[in-house]
Amino acid sequence: MQITSTLTDTDQDWQYVVVFWLDRQMFAVPIESVVKISARTALAPITHADPSVVGVIEIAGRAALAVSLQNSPDAVVRAVSHAPVLVVQIGEAIIAMVVDKLAGVVRVPRWQIRPIGARLPGTIVHTPLGIALLLNLARVFTADQIQTLTRPPCGMPIPVTAATPEAQI
């Protein structure tokens, strides 16, 4: 008796995701949304009305606000100078998300991606690292948040990162 699999090695059968940890939970985002992955990025301090903004980074010569997605405002470390950052694109907006730890890029079979509910911002994905929430980035941030995060305050400095090279994953 020969056992065959219906899963082929074609691109349409697989999804590439970037896996990261935040507040001891595993999350993932589709690789198509990712602009940059950096295990250690220099963050320039900034005073901002939104408490989730923890600094500013340079992306392709432009300043971008770095946002912490930690659940508790008390858990946000505002004095951090370097952190793992996942830069994503949502529509035309570029947002830098500060995470606790980056795991890297993982290839998963599409059949292992399951919706979890209409109101939740993602789906469940079974990765080799365990079960992660695959985020739908368009539902993580509101339109107002995206607008606020893509308009840095006037005169905001662009950090100099040449002295501290970034570790790329």
Radius of gyration equals 17 Å
Overall number of strands? 12
- Main structural class: mainly beta
Distance between the termini: 43 Å
Mean pLDDT, all residues: 76
> How do the helices and strands follow one another from N- to C-terminus?
EEEEEEEEEEEHHE
Count of the separate structural domains: 1
Low-confidence stretches: 1-5, 157-169
What fraction, in percent, of the residue positions are helical?
under 10%
Mind explaining what this structure looks like?
The protein has 169 residues and is mainly β. The chain has one domain (11-168). The chain contains 2 helices and 12 strands; from the N terminus they run βββββββββββααβ. The chain has helices at 137-140, 143-149; strands at 14-22, 25-30, 34-42, 53-59, 62-68, 82-90, 93-98, 101-109, 113-115, 122-127, 130-135, 167-168. The strands form 2 sheets. A 6-stranded mixed sheet has the order 8-1-2-11-10-9. Strands 4-5-7-6-3-12 form a 6-stranded mixed sheet. Residues 1-5 and 157-169 have low confidence and may be disordered.
Question: Which features characterize this protein?
Answer:
disordered N terminus, disordered C terminus, 6-stranded mixed sheet, 47% strand, mainly beta, 169 residues, 7% helix
Question: Topology of this structure?
Answer:
Elements: E1 14-22, E2 25-30, E3 34-42, E4 53-59, E5 62-68, E6 82-90, E7 93-98, E8 101-109, E9 113-115, E10 122-127, E11 130-135, H1 137-140, H2 143-149, E12 167-168
Could you give a quick summary of the protein structure above?
By secondary structure, the protein is mainly beta. Helix content is 7%, strand content 47%.
